Amino acid sequence: MIPQSFIQDLLNRVDIVDVVGRYVQLKKGGANYMGLCPFHNEKSPSFTVSPTKQFYHCFGCGAHGTAIGFLIEYSGLGFVEAVKDLAQGVGMIVPDQDRLPPAQRAEVQAKSLALSEVMTSAGDFYRQQLRAAQNAIAYLKGRGLTGEIAARFGLGYAPEGWDSLRAVFPDYDIAALVEAGLVIDKDDDEGGRHKRYDRFRDRIMFPIRNTKGQVIGFGGRVLDGGEPKYLNSPETPLFQKGNELYGLFEARQAIRDAGYALVTEGYMDVVALAQLGFPQAVATLGTACTSTHVQKLLRQTDQVIFSFDGDAAGRRAARRALEACLPYASDNKTLKFLFLPSEHDPDSYIRESGAEAFEREVRDAMPLSQFLLNEVVGDNDLSTPEGRARVQFEAKPLLQAMPASGLRLQIVRGLAQLTQTTPAEIEALFELVQPVARTKIAPPRTKRTPPMGLERQMIRLLVAHPVLAADLDESALAAAAHLAPDNAAMLGQLIAACQSLGQQANFAALAEQLRATGPDFDALVAEIAADSESDLEAARLELAGAVRQTRMQVLKAELASLVAAGLQTEEARLRYRELSQQQEQLRRQAEVENMPR
């Protein structure tokens, strides 16, 4: 858990205009900056970035957040990854969960930076070499690729020589070259001498980028019929195959525009599809699809379509992708599987049948529910008890991997129909967590009643200017709680959050903290993000006035209650005089504050 104090310090150091400006072209417009929203298609700018609030807001689609939220939404990073990315840019080291000593954390960070610089230099070298490599250029042209698409993906060429990288790294023996996977160390069995040579030789080079656009690995393809056809970087501190997707950095905006991501099996599929009108394609890196891949994709879009060859190997790869998807299959996500004829990959299919035919294949891809049922039925004979039992046996671990949802219930119903059982029997037999079919579905949790009147005014002022929470004491909260007990917890939660941020509290830091608590404050945060900047001292006076009115209303209610009871006891009369004095004191305060200055 990253401490909230670190998050606040980070947001105080980064400038959201710089962060957003890396990805969106911004122009100054009054106090704010304007640009085209990266989260939906628009022709006139409705996307604003406020340097004073350190917050972005789109008047078109409603997207809003801090610099951290922007990286999460735009780059598909997780919260911790986004924080680390911003921290690195301002020289801060994120407190890791493993609690490494500061010196060791700095050493790890320095090593990672050194490897990143080595990979960047190698990528630049390979791109330069491609310009003069006529055989490599002829190969790419033969595959129908243009120079523009090669430049977009940073394609390069690794020369034939055993140590071509000496041209980039005169100190060819540095450890970073081995650690980055660019060279191989081998002992000469005859002389016992140490030998080092380039891993990639005479290959088309596909740089693999992370979500920040940094080169973290390479895939190299032979130009002739040599083996292996593709050679990938080994696992390194920068590069883990199970965590990365080729082309995701280049495809992010296209995925948003298309409304889905298309997952293929190879580098050339991605580049060729981008050339032929499908830039929303990505590929796994010579390994099976993993749950991390699925998570990364579902951060970018609600619909993912996996494209596989129709042969046995393609079916096996699809099955592994299905298993990786199941923990994230939910009612608001669409996961599909596209199987091309066995003689085709996406590149060859489009070139032979055309883009429209491929588009139809994508549109008609098989839903996860249908693919799962097809997989478990397989060749089993559903006319026999043994065959039906085998189908249930195959289905059990798959359904157990799914979260409780309407989609799982639909699959359970389909399986029950196939195996001549009931959905409740399937859920009981499979011991499914949170069974849906055989228990009454609980009504959805009701949201808090939206705050109204003075209570809403106070909450709104505190969200906009969290430093004002220091002006409030227990009596102010007690008065608000008496006036609107339903939302006392909400106000108390807000005041505690504001006060925990200290004297440096600001809107961006508070918004980031509230985002993690749930949706209760989302509407107010969006509303304030869309408003122009308000004056702190004016807000301070407004808050004091709202608190005073709240106390006045509480006093009036208690006075009316005492009068209605008849003021029959000395204690009641004493309390009446005490409340009347408090009421008069509040009136005088109001007169003083409202005097012209």
UniProtKB/TrEMBL annotation:
Q: Which cofactor does it need?
A: Zn(2+)
- Report keywords, A-Z: Coiled coil, DNA replication, DNA-binding, DNA-directed RNA polymerase, Magnesium, Metal-binding, Nucleotidyltransferase, Primosome, Transcription, Transferase, Zinc, Zinc-finger
Q: Where are the zinc fingers (CHC2-type)?
A: 37-61
Please list the GO biological process terms of this entry.
DNA replication, synthesis of primer
Q: Where is the Toprim domain?
A: 259-341
Keyword Zinc assigned: yes
Task: Give coiled-coil spans as residue ranges.
Answer: 529-589
Which residue positions does the secretion signal occupy? none
**Tell me, what's a Pfam family for it?**
Toprim_2
Enumerate the catalysed reactions.
Answer: ssDNA + n NTP = ssDNA/pppN(pN)n-1 hybrid + (n-1) diphosphate
Q: What class of enzyme is it?
A: transferase
Family annotation (InterPro entries): DNA_helicase_N/primase_C, DNA_primase_core_N_sf, DNA_primase_DnaB-bd, DNA_primase_DnaG, DNA_primase_DnaG_DnaB-bd_dom, DNA_primase_Znf_CHC2, DnaG_bac, DNAG_N
Q: How is the cofactor bound?
A: Binds 1 zinc ion per monomer.
Q: Which GO terms describe its molecular function?
A: DNA binding; DNA-directed RNA polymerase activity; zinc ion binding
Under Enzyme Commission nomenclature, its number is 2.7.7.101
Q: Which GO terms describe its cellular component?
A: cytoplasm; DNA-directed RNA polymerase complex; primosome complex
Assigned protein family:
Belongs to the DnaG primase family.
Question: NCBIfam families, from UniProt?
Answer: dnaG
What is the UniProt domain comment for this protein?
Contains an N-terminal zinc-binding domain, a central core domain that contains the primase activity, and a C-terminal DnaB-binding domain.
Function in brief: RNA polymerase that catalyzes the synthesis of short RNA molecules used as primers for DNA polymerase during DNA replication.
Q: Quaternary form?
A: Monomer. Interacts with DnaB.
Q: What is this protein called?
A: DNA primase
Q: Which organism is it from?
A: Noviherbaspirillum cavernae
